[in-house]
Amino acid sequence: MVQENRSQSTAMEGNAVRYDNEKGGVNMINHVVLMKFKPDVNDDAIDDLEKSLDDLPNKIIEIQAYEFGRDRVHSERSYDFALVSLFANLEAVKRYQEHPAHLKVLQKIKKLSENILAVDFEGTDAGKIKKDELGAMLSRLGRV
């Protein structure tokens, strides 16, 4: 459940306002996409998609963090490919979705995929863990 009683942070990333959550972290939007490729899609086509995806953060400044890759488990319920990206807020996601570079890659994804699932949820930016919290975690793991 998302907490609605947030105070606006003074931290800015580009033009995007970020919000502090009640634990002192920063709420971000996680964008997750799963793709099930058509049976005739080959490795060359997936390689080409990966090259196109790899270039998006260079063209779209709203992308804060970005990972993608092929499924390694290959279970009956597995999808073939996943993309996870992080954005400052919903406005940044909207700008990303409308960006010409994203639209071009999206057309490629639609051509290769028989099914696409997506979810956008609010989460805490793991990269902003306070130093003392990190120390406490490492201590619990016996690494300090």
Explained architecture:
This protein has a single domain (7-140), classed as 2-Layer Sandwich (Alpha-Beta Plaits). It has 4 helices and 6 strands; from the N terminus they run E-E-E-H-E-E-H-H-E-H. It has helices at residues 43-59, 90-98, 100-112, 131-140; strands at residues 7-13, 16-20, 26-37, 65-70, 81-87, 113-124. Strands 1, 2, 3, 4, 5 and 6 form a 6-stranded antiparallel sheet that branches. A hairpin with a 5-residue loop joins strand 2 (16-20) and strand 3 (26-37). It is globular and about 50 Å long.
In short:
By secondary structure, the protein is an alpha+beta fold.
Low-pLDDT stretches: 1-21
The backbone outline, from C-alpha atoms, is: globular
Q: Please state the CA-atom Rg, rounded to the nearest Å.
A: 18 Å
CATH top level? Alpha Beta
Output the helix-strand order: EEEHEEHHEH
Tell me the number of strands: 6
Instruction: Compute the number of helices.
Output: 4
Largest sheet: 6 strands, antiparallel
Q: Mean pLDDT, rounded to whole units? A: 81
CATH architecture: 2-Layer Sandwich
How helix-rich are the residues, as a percent range? 25-40%
Q: What is the CATH fold-level name?
A: Alpha-Beta Plaits
Strand content: 25-35%
Spatial gap, N to C terminus: 34 Å
Computed structural class: alpha+beta
Question: Would you spell out the secondary-structure blueprint of this structure?
Answer:
Elements: E1 7-13, E2 16-20, E3 26-37, H1 43-59, E4 65-70, E5 81-87, H2 90-98, H3 100-112, E6 113-124, H4 131-140
Antiparallel strand pairs: 1-2, 2-3, 3-5, 3-6, 4-5
